[in-house]
Amino acid sequence: MSKQEIKIEIIPWNASYEIGHELIDSQHKIFLMLLNKLSVTIANGVTKEHLFRVLNELKKYAEFHFLSEENVMHECFYPGIDNHKRIHSEILFEFAALSERVSHGRSNSSDVVAFLKSWLFDHIKNEDSHIARYVREHSYEI
Questions:
Q1: How many domains does one find in the chain?
Q2: Is 30 inside any structural domain?
Q3: pTM of the model
């Protein structure tokens, strides 16, 4: 794979990304670390095989994180769980579709990075923050 002319944007974890749930916040930090790893991988112009190993690592971690987050929602009887699970499924579907387009040269690998960064920060702000608020308001210790 040839080296792409992209700017490496390493995003450090920032307290403003935290939702106030220790488990979910720690998993979001790891996801951001993997996302930064993907950015560096792309910028270094590694082989297609290596790129897809990193993409697969991100996909597997997202699947784990979503299951973990859904378990938190089940444990506290979160009323929005069905919608949240649907959103998780849509994210995984779009991630798989985008990765497929990259593998066939119909999309740029940096598009995957942009999608995942957008998803991570939008999802934290617009969805996951509701879970944490619900857990705090209902005094669940999870």
A1: 1
A2: yes
A3: 0.85
